[in-house]
Amino acid sequence: MVTLTIDGQKIQVPEGTTILEAAKAVNIRIPHLCYLKGINEIAACRVCCVEVEGERAMVTACNSPVMEGMVVHTNSPRARTTRRTNVELILSQHDCKCATCVRSGNCQLQTIANDLGILELPYETQLPRGLRGAWTTTFPLYHDYNKCIKCMRCVQVCDKIQSLSIWDLAGTGSRTTIDVSNNRVIKDSDCALCGQCITHCPVGGLRERDDTGRAFAALADPDKITVVQVAPAVRTAWGEAFGLKREEATMERMAGTLRRLGFDYIFDTNFSADLTIMEEGNEFIHRLKSGGLTRWPMFTSCCPSWVRFLKGQYPELTNQLSTAKSPQQMFGSVAKSWLAKKLGVEPEKIFCVSIMPCVAKKAECDLPTMRTEHGPDVDMVLTTREFVRMIRADKLDPACIPEEPLDDPMGTHTGAGVIFGATGGVMEAALRTAAYVLTGENPDPEAFAEVRTGPGLREATYEVAGIPVRCAVVSGLGNARKLVEQLKAGKVHYDFVEVMACPGGCVGGGGQPIDIEDRELYGVRGGRLYDLDKANTMRFSHENPQVQALYKEFLGAPLSEKAEELLHTNHKGWNMPNQE
Amino acid sequence: MSRLSIETPGRAQTVLGGLHRDMERRISASSPGLCPVDMSLNYLRLCHAQTCGKCVPCRVGLSQLEVLIERVLDRTATLETIDLIESTAQVIADSADCAIGYEAAHMVLKGVRGFREDYEEHVLHGRCICGLSHPVPCVSVCPAHVDVPGYVALVREGRYDDAVKLIRKDNPFPSACAYVCEHPCEAHCRRRMVDDAVNICGLKRFAVDHAQTVKAPPCAESTGKTVAVIGGGPGGLTAAYYLSLMGHEVTVYEQRPKLGGMLRYGIPDYRLPQDILDRDIEYILSVGIKVHTGVSIGKDLAMEDIQKSYDAVYIAIGAHNDKKLGLEGEDSANVISAVALLRGIGEGNVPDFTGKKVCVVGGGNVSMDATRTAKRLGAESVTCVYRRRVEDMTALPEEIEEAMAEGCQILPLQAPARIEADEEGKVAALWTRPQVIGPYGKDGRPKPNNADAREFRIPCDYVIVAIGQAIVAQPFEAIGVTTNRGAIQADLTSSVPGVGNVFAGGDAVSGPATVIRAVAGGKVAAANIDAYLGFDHKISCDVEVPPAHFTNTPPCGRVNLKSNCTPDCKGNFSLVVDGMSLEEAQQESSRCLRCDHFGYGSFKGGRNTEW
Question: Quick one: pLDDT at residue A134?
Fold first, then answer.
């Protein structure tokens, strides 16, 4: 233990603790911008500078370890001046038009500047000139050079957590900026579109392509029947922006809210998650029994960011992906076929919107393999954040909106569908149904709970009807890369592998609300999904009555010709930009 | 009223003089990987601030060039802008009245012609094409990428064993390098921005002088693969060491009786004592390397056989043959090559120059070694003859100073013309042709030309030729290894094109260079041979580097090592340079700015923990 004094308080902390963390332990908050614990401890913004007695210069609290007997002043006149000036300097190269920024009210720079009471800037505004400030308007990921404060968090998250190194420094001296690495443009890169750079950006330097305008236009179009699906993870997080407790921010309250926004039919992606299990579970049993999984496992395919990652990094393993479409795309296919038929309308009239915790879904719905002659199966994707912005735009107060039932037939779901939003959920749901298919009996729904928790690799082998099934679950693309490398080296063998690109699964998705305190919320959000699963009377996808009706009325059986046509895809039907 | 007064600089001028010196040091401390266009623009601005403002091309033209280059960097320019920059700069270069203007324009022209593709990349894509890696300067400039800030921090903590262990992760010759490394690491040391480079080499010497014997790390599990290394010098032994750690079975073939190569047979004992070198070699051999000394490839063993019997071969034969002057009288008795002289001494054949006059021809480090060795062998006088100026000599400045302090004479601007022999055919004198230094050549160095003066006779008994070395490549050409201008052809991965399992590196490939470059070559070869054999072994070190101190020390003089040079050095081959005291080492190590932690270091590239 090390003893030190911070602002007159004598404290003891373990050796190696940073000044910033030591101060936090006694409720002394040292302002900071670039710091992201364990990921970005590079002291770039210099906002966390404190005065340490006996040191010539200011010391950064975020990456300087405490020393025995040190005396720290976080609010000395010199510390105040340093902090204020450095924030003013950052503001001088930041586009401070907060009124037109998606992060206004949720921006760490805005908060610090307001807290410091900065009312005017002594410096000239310097923003990139010429084409240096230009970015594509069509790619689902948007980088704003004028708002970027070069904190390097995106670089570090993409390097250290996602192992893709899409971002890097570009330019030198005063023109140093963040750009796509290796002089590429984003459209030509192997970006997986996980969106983790967005959720770790302290300001509005990164965001999703904003599609709310298109959504409002569709809602206003009398010729369109707007059908919306909501992904499981969205219900765990949308209420954060409105101060709603997680238990209050229910799917049913979202249904009420969506109706008030003007959607005609409100459905649940959980329905198609159950459907995915029917297809993917049966596909797995088929592949397992036919000996197709002796060298390589079957990979889940519901995470489009993982699919982009695998195709971009290990294209030779593309065939190991389950051919089942993701729940979002299965929903779109069914909406424009079965539902259209049931409603007695032309599929073209249906405008299919999905609300997703995800940025990659925006790219997935645009794939050439995800459309028919009637147009795209899913017309547009909104992230949870865009959904929140739409609610705000209409001045709706979800706390005052009653819970309302979802529509039939695609609003019905089981607990197995809802856990798709957390890492391990797809695996668990699939195993529940696979066990039923193989044995004719439902297993204990908690039998496969081992694959839950944490983003790191989890392995389990289950005996299903006497067949040992070697399973692995991983989330975060860096973890996924490690797993694939182990598989390639022949050091591990699995039959079934679930991968989610975002740490913690979709609950930690790149389209989810951003926590201004930099807390990683996938744990609590995921916990909410498991509570919902437990509270559901139906916990097996094959028991979903509307899924059963869909097979009976329309598809026949899982993996039938019709099911193959509508619910499966050819992952080789398109290329990642770096494959071309 | 006085007609004249003594001018003294005003306060501003004095301060500015200091700033000029700060800037000189700062520019010399530039890291690799800066944007050349941005640097050009800012040099141009500096030049423009020097203008007096009288003439149009300089006053207005430089200003307009600044605007145009700024546009390139802002990506508001077109490709035509680059042409305009070039044509404008050409006019300024042609029509400016004085050097302030035309030299500034020449700098712009050099840039726009020398790295036009960088200009184009900025115009087309708004990017730099340079690496922009901002590495730790000392680590990136060291050919072997030794973790300099790491071991300097360990020396500061008094952890000398750990410091040596950390160096050995990248360089198994810490002791030899502590004594004779040319320390390119110091050239770009960021501390130069404050005062002067850290004496990195001196601190390394303090570490190796104070470390206890450290056990080598265990080798990886045996791979069953065999590698032959031809040449037991620093490059060959480096490859052998790392390949052994990687689990391969390594056999070293050395043609001389002992290992060490040029370190033993080229560098005199007063710079690198044999027992210091032996410490490194014993450590390297402790990982279980088979050694065959006294075996010459091509004579005792055919290269074909070696290539067939081993899974991979590394050729690191060095450059041990001398180059000839090609002058009349060169075949006279007592004309000897420096390499042969130094090698002979290494083998125990110490000639006696007592009372003799010796001339040494050449201006590199080998010539300095020969000069100082001749003095120690008892020569009455030693004259080092060089055709350029002293400042053009490629030998380290301290070597030249020490030679002079030992009473050797440096005779610059004299080109050897012929060697005069006496009736017995022995050297009687070296005739030289006086030179005058002239215009700059293509290599960026001023060229000497024959002066309008008579030939000069230097009476002497010995002429020692130290004008470069060559390799013996014939035994390797037999298996398809090709040579060009006396160097084995190998690519940057040290693989020999077209000869599957054969790799080559060190002086034999690069021409005569330095120990640390040989070590770097051995390291590269080890990694690529490992990969060639189908493995991906990593070399790492478990030493924890101490955290950086919060803030750095104020400007402080650099501790230089003291040398005990005396003209009275006959027969004395003991070490010339003294190491630092503890007090000095602690102060010197505290001068390190810890670029591994501060600046870009904490973001990217601070520390490579394995390779």
Answer: 81
Tokens of A20: 């910033």
Q: Please indicate if any CB of chain B lies within 8 Å of the CB of A110.
A: no
Residue B132 has pLDDT above 70, yes or no: no
Interchain CB distance below 8 Å, A171 and B127 = yes
Q: Is A301 left (phi over 0), alpha (psi -120 to 50) or beta?
A: alpha
CB-based burial, B360-381: b 16+ in 10 Å, e otherwise: bbbbbbbbbbbbbbbbbbbbeb
Residue A430 CA to residue A451 CA, distance in Å, equals 12
Q: How far is CA A68 from the centre of its chain?
A: 42
Which phi-psi region, left, alpha or beta, contains residue A19 (left: φ > 0; alpha: ψ -120 to 50)?
alpha
How many other C-beta atoms can be found within 10 angstroms of the C-beta atom of residue B14? 11
The count of other CB atoms within 10 Å of the CB of residue B59 is 15
Closest CB to A175: pick one of B38, B76, B134.
B38
B125–A contact, CB cutoff 8 A: yes
Residues B62, B67, B68, B74, CA torsion sign: positive
Place of tokens 């963390």: A21
Judge whether B523 and B144 are in contact, CB under 8 Å.
Answer: yes
- Count of Cβ atoms closer than 10 Å to residue A556 Cβ: 12
Contact between chains at A130 and B126 (C-beta distance less than 8 A): yes
pLDDT, tens only, A62-74: 999 999 999 999 9
Q: Between the CA of residue B505 and those of A66, B266, B409, B514, what are the distances in Å? A: 47, 18, 36, 12
Q: Which positions ≥6 away from A421 have C-beta within 8 Å?
A: A231, A232, A233, A234, A236, A357, A505, A506, A507, A525, A526, A529
Mean pLDDT over the full length of chain A: 94
pLDDT of residue B500: 85
Q: Are A131 and B128 a contacting pair at CB < 8 A?
A: no
B206 close to B198: Cβ distance less than 8 angstroms = no
| Beta carbons of A172 and B38 less than 8 Å apart | yes
Most A CBs within 10 Å: which of B535, B551, B590, as the mutation test of the A interface?
B551
Confidence category of residue B127, pLDDT binned at 50, 70, 90: confident
Total residues found in chain A within this entry: 580
> What are the angstrom distances between the C-alpha of A107 and each of A201, A204, A518, B138, B383?
9, 7, 11, 39, 74
| pLDDT band, residue B131 (cuts 50/70/90) | low
With H, G, I as helix, E, B as strand and everything else as coil, classify residue A500.
strand
Q: Does B405 touch chain A (CB under 8 A)?
A: no
pTM: 0.88
- Decide: B357 and B381 in contact? Cβ < 8 Å: yes
Report the distance separating Cα A354 and Cα A326, nearest Å: 12
Helix, strand, coil distribution of chain B in percent, nearest 5: 40, 15, 45
- Whole-number Cα distances in Å, A97 to A118, A206, A337: 15, 15, 45
What confidence score (pLDDT) does residue A173 get? 78
Mean of pLDDT values over A305-315 = 97
The CA distance from A38 to A330, in Å, is 38
Q: Which of residues 478-537 of B touch A (CB under 8 A)?
A: none
Two tokens at B75?
Answer: 């990506």
The model's confidence at residue B605, banded by pLDDT at 50, 70 and 90, is low
Predicted confidence (pLDDT) per residue in B564-603, tens digit: 888 888 888 999 999 999 999 999 999 999 999 998 888 8
List own/partner pairs for B26-31 with CB under 8 A and 24 or more apart: B26/B192, B26/B193, B28/B187, B28/B188, B28/B192, B29/B137, B29/B188, B29/B189, B29/B190, B29/B191, B29/B192, B29/B193, B30/B188, B31/B134, B31/B135, B31/B137, B31/B140, B31/B188, B31/B190
Question: How far from A527 is each of A236, A452, A522, B112, B170, CA to CA, in Å?
Answer: 9, 10, 8, 61, 48
- Do A130 and B129 count as a contact with CB atoms less than 8 A apart? no
